[in-house]
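Students often ask what a holo structure prediction actually looks like on paper. The answer is less mysterious than it sounds. You provide the chain, you provide the ligand, and the output is a string of discrete structure tokens encoding the 3D arrangement of the protein together with zinc ion.
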Amino acid sequence: MIAHSTIDGVKACDMLKIYCKCGNIVSLDKGMIWTKKNLRKKIECTACRNRRISFDIEYLNGLFDGTLDEALA
Ligand SMILES: [Zn+2]
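The corresponding structure tokens follow.
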């Protein structure tokens, strides 16, 4: 008997609760944690991920704008 793990068929016992650095609880199934560890990705909650992504975008935008200004000067 082979147990397949699908997105719809995640069992409750396969869910792990991990604290994000901000204190929020992140629910992930074991497969997802394994994947993230393999990819060396940090486990973070949605709020932290959104904050990080928007920070990255702003940083890159600033960098890009600065480069553009230099190129035009
Ligand atoms: Zn967080």
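The beta strands are 15-19, 25-29.
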